[in-house]
């Protein structure tokens, strides 16, 4: 199984970025997909999740209204559209696959992880 995240970079506060995560080696539509992030010196934290079909989404309070998660099961890809970025959004962003789709938004509930993509927001 491979999850390849991309799309990170340097952006000014208030700007936007779109992250992508391409999956291979698994039946993508059988997995809920999540995004997590980890800032320097901090624990990995949940950002957003999307159900297997894409019909359900869930967000951390810190990103609600600014970030949008979506998926394209035909392309085996999940996206994270990030708008109105803040300096505190600076982190390495990871995509993760959740086979059980249990609604437990914690790193230990994930089955597979990508390597992460760095997002830096300058203030």
Question: How do the strands and helices of this protein lay out in sequence?
Answer:
Layout: E1 2-6, E2 9-12, E3 17-24, E4 32-38, E5 45-50, E6 57-59, E7 67-72, E8 77-82, E9 91-98, E10 112-113, E11 117-122
Parallel strand pairs: 2-11
Antiparallel strand pairs: 1-3, 3-8, 4-5, 4-9, 5-6, 7-8, 9-10, 9-11
Would you kindly provide a written description of the structure presented here, covering whatever features stand out?
It is a single chain. With 123 residues, the chain is mostly beta strands. The chain is 0% helix and 50% strand. It contains no helices and 11 strands. It has strands spanning 2-6, 9-12, 17-24, 32-38, 45-50, 57-59, 67-72, 77-82, 91-98, 112-113, 117-122. Strands 2, 4, 5, 6, 9, 10 and 11 form a 7-stranded mixed beta sheet that branches. A 4-stranded antiparallel beta sheet has the order 1-3-8-7, with no helix packed on it. Strand 4 (32-38) and strand 5 form a beta hairpin. 34% of the residues are buried.
User: Into which percentage range does the β-strand content fall?
Assistant: over 45%
The SS-based structural class is mainly beta
Tell me the number of strands.
11
Uncertain segments are none
- Return the average pLDDT rounded to an integer: 96
Terminal CA distance reads 37 Å
Largest sheet: 7 strands, mixed
| Count of helix runs | 0
Provide the helix percentage.
under 10%
Radius of gyration: 13 Å
Q: What is the molecular shape? A: globular
Elements, N to C (H/E): EEEEEEEEEEE
């Amino acid at each position: 199984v491979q999850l390849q995240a991309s799309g990170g970079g340097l952006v000014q506060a208030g700007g936007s970025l779109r992250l992508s995560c391409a999956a291979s080696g698994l039946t993508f539509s059988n997995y809920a997909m999540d995004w997590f992030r980890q800032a320097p010196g901090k624990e990995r934290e949940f950002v957003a999740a999307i159900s297997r079909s894409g019909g359900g989404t869930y967000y951390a309070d810190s990103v609600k209204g600014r970030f949008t998660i979506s998926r394209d099961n035909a392309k085996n890809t999940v996206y994270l559209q990030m708008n109105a970025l803040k300096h505190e959004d600076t982190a390495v962003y990871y995509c993760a696959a959740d086979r059980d789709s249990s609604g437990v938004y914690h790193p230990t509930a994930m089955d597979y992880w990508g390597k992460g993509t760095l997002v830096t927001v300058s203030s």
